[in-house]
Amino acid sequence: MNRPGKIVCVGRNYREHAKELGNDVPTAPLLFLKPPSAVIAPGAAIVMPKASQRVDFEGEVGVVIGTTLRRASPAQCAAGIRGVVALNDVTARDLQKSDGQWTRGKGFDTFCPIGPLSEGVPPLDAITVVTRVNGEEKQRASSAEMVFSIPDLLSYISHIMTLEPGDVVATGTPAGIAPLQPGDMVEVELVGLSIVRNPVEAEA
Ligand code: ZN
C-alpha cells in the first residue's frame, strides 16, 4: 500500500493490555503518532535498534481512511473507511518508559509493518486480531473488546486533526505483548482480511 500521510495511534484501548503494563484504562482515547517513515511492507525486516534492550510486537487493527473526515460523527466516520490492514506497532518499550514521550520508542525505521488492504470494510465490531511469533500464538482479541470503538476513535481524532484519505489509525493492542529477538518471525493477522509477516534482525 502507499505510504500514509500520517499514522495516528491509540494507546491502552484494551482493558487487559492496560492492566498487563500496570496502567489504568484512559477516560478518553490516548493518542500518539508514528512517522510514515517507519512503514515497511510484508516480508521486510524489523530492525532492532542498538539503543533499545527491549523491542516488543503489538498486533493491531489498522484502519485506512477513505474520505476526508473533519469534525465528523461516528456514523460519518464509519462510512468514510476504505478498509482495514494488519498493523504491527513495534515498540522499544524501555525507551517509551524512560522518555515519557513516546516518539522515539515508537518511531524507529521499520517499526510499522503494514499488511495489504482488506477487500471491502468488515463489520467494525467483529474483527479478530491475532499475533504469532515463530508460529506460536501470542495475542488474540476481537475489536468488540476495545474500550473505544473504531467509529468513536475516528470521530474523536477528527475533532483534533483532519483525517485524510490514506491516513492510517492504529487502534491499540490487546493483551499478550512480549519482546522480540533477532531471528524471530512475527506475524499479525486480521482473520480473513489482512496479514503482515516480518523477520526480525539486529541493527548491523
Ligand atoms: Zn500500539
Question: What would a concise description of this structure say?
Answer:
By secondary structure, this protein is an alpha+beta fold. The chain has helices at residues 15-20, 74-79, 93-99, 103-107, 150-158, and strands at residues 7-11, 30-34, 39-40, 46-48, 55-56, 59-65, 81-88, 91-92, 112-113, 128-133, 136-142, 168-170, 185-190, 194-202. It has one domain: Fumarylacetoacetase-like, C-terminal domain (Fumarylacetoacetate hydrolase, domain 2, Alpha-Beta Complex).
Question: Uncertain runs with pLDDT below 50, 5 residues or more?
Answer: none
Largest sheet: 5 strands, mixed
Q: What's the CATH topology name? A: Fumarylacetoacetate hydrolase, domain 2
Cα radius of gyration in angstroms: 15 Å
> Distance N terminus to C terminus?
27 Å
Architecture (CATH level 2) name? Alpha-Beta Complex
Structural class: alpha+beta
The ligands found in this model are: zinc ion
Task: Chart the SSEs and their pairings.
Layout: E1 7-11, H1 15-20, E2 30-34, E3 39-40, E4 46-48, E5 55-56, E6 59-65, H2 74-79, E7 81-88, E8 91-92, H3 93-99, H4 103-107, E9 112-113, E10 128-133, E11 136-142, H5 150-158, E12 168-170, E13 185-190, E14 194-202
Parallel strand pairs: 1-12, 3-9, 4-14
Antiparallel strand pairs: 1-2, 5-8, 6-7, 6-12, 10-11, 10-13, 13-14
Bound molecules: zinc ion.
Zinc ion binds next to loops.
What does this structure look like?
The protein is of the alpha+beta class. It has one domain: Fumarylacetoacetase-like, C-terminal domain (Fumarylacetoacetate hydrolase, domain 2), CATH 3.90.850. The protein is built from five helices and 14 strands. It has helices at 15-20, 74-79, 93-99, 103-107, 150-158, and strands spanning 7-11, 30-34, 39-40, 46-48, 55-56, 59-65, 81-88, 91-92, 112-113, 128-133, 136-142, 168-170, 185-190, 194-202. Strand 10 (128-133) and strand 11 (136-142) form a beta hairpin. The longest helix is centred in the last third of the chain and has 9 residues, at 150-158. The radius of gyration is 15 Å and the shape is globular. The two termini are 27 Å apart. 45% of the residues are buried. It binds zinc ion (ZN). Residues 9, 58, 60, 89, 170, 172-173 line the site of zinc ion.
